[in-house]
Specification:
Keywords: NADP
Largest sheet: 7 strands, parallel
CATH architecture: 3-Layer(aba) Sandwich
Structural class: alpha/beta
GO molecular function, one term: oxidoreductase activity, acting on the CH-OH group of donors, NAD or NADP as acceptor
Order of helices and strands: EEEHEHEHEHEHHEHE
Distance between the termini: 36 Å
Number of helices: 7
CATH class: Alpha Beta
Number of strands: 9
Shape: globular
CATH superfamily: NAD(P)-binding Rossmann-like Domain
CATH topology: Rossmann fold
InterPro entries: NAD(P)-bd_dom_sf (IPR036291), Sc_DH/Rdtase_CS (IPR020904), SDR_fam (IPR002347)
Family: Belongs to the short-chain dehydrogenases/reductases (SDR) family.
Number of domains: 1
Pfam families: adh_short_C2
Length: 247
């Protein structure tokens, strides 16, 4: 069945970081998002540190007749982010959509116990990587006069209540970065929104566990024509499955 016009991504080029995310028996957030974008007609750059994981996502997209290519990158390294965007442009000519899904649970412990080097490493994975990918994707979006960026946070970034200080702090930073980017790039018709996966089954009102597909559909909506007036939105979504490429 052909996609509805509002969710027709034919001609769109998307970058999904963490596109190989998976767990045994479940679909990961990045993998689900990449598959859904391709299913709706987008050409998708599958960015992942682990090309084996991303190649499995590509296999699933190929099976459905979609278009994608694996782009190996370390999104904590600026030159690697620059190269990933350049490779996408080489493959498909432009960039319309950037979905930043990379993230880790990270260093455990409170301020008195956590390892400082691990803190700095994981903040770079969870926060800095999204800034670096945006740094090189936004100039391509400007050429088109439009664009959509979706950052992955967590309800922990809104509520705290996590035994790790690093995780809610970094996810809260992603939320505030999204709001700041939305204000900065809205006048350029580049929308920036955020999805916050969580709560688990015993914590949410519906008492139902979501999946990576639920997160993927939320991202699909935020990238779609249906959401063309939406920017700066922080969208909680029940469920979500990692891990990312760094887990």
């Amino acid at each position: 069945m052909a996609p509805s016009e509002a969710f027709n991504f034919t001609g769109e080029v998307a970058i999904v970081t963490g596109a190989g995310s998976r767990m045994d028996g479940e679909i990961g957030n990045g993998r689900a998002t990449a598959i859904l974008l391709a299913r709706q007609g987008a050409r998708v750059a599958l960015v992942d540190f682990n090309p084996t994981w991303a190649n499995e996502t590509k296999r699933m997209i190929d099976k459905e007749g979609g278009v994608s290519e694996v782009v190996q990158a370390d999104v904590t390294v600026e030159e690697s982010c620059k190269a990933a965007v350049a490779k996408t442009v080489q493959l498909y000519g432009t960039v319309h959509i950037l979905v930043n899904i990379v993230g880790v649970g990270g260093a455990m412990g409170d301020a008195t116990k956590l390892d400082v080097d691990a803190w700095e490493r994981d903040m770079r994975i969870n926060v800095t990587s999204m800034m670096l990918m945006s740094r090189y994707a936004i100039p391509e979006m400007r050429k088109n006069g439009r664009g959509s960026i979706v950052n992955m946070s967590s309800v922990s970034g809104l509520l705290g209540g996590n035994p790790s200080l690093l995780y809610p702090t970094s996810k809260g930073a992603v939320i505030q970065m999204t709001r700041a980017m939305a204000a900065q790039h809205g006048p350029e018709n580049i929308r920036v929104n955020c999805v916050c996966p969580g709560m688990r089954i015993n914590q949410n009102l519906l008492k139902q566990e979501g999946t990576g597909w639920d997160v993927g559909y939320a991202i699909l909506f935020l990238c779609s024509k249906e959401a063309r007036w939406i920017t700066g939105m922080i969208m909680p979504v029940d469920g979500g499955v990692g891990p990312s490429l760094y887990s």
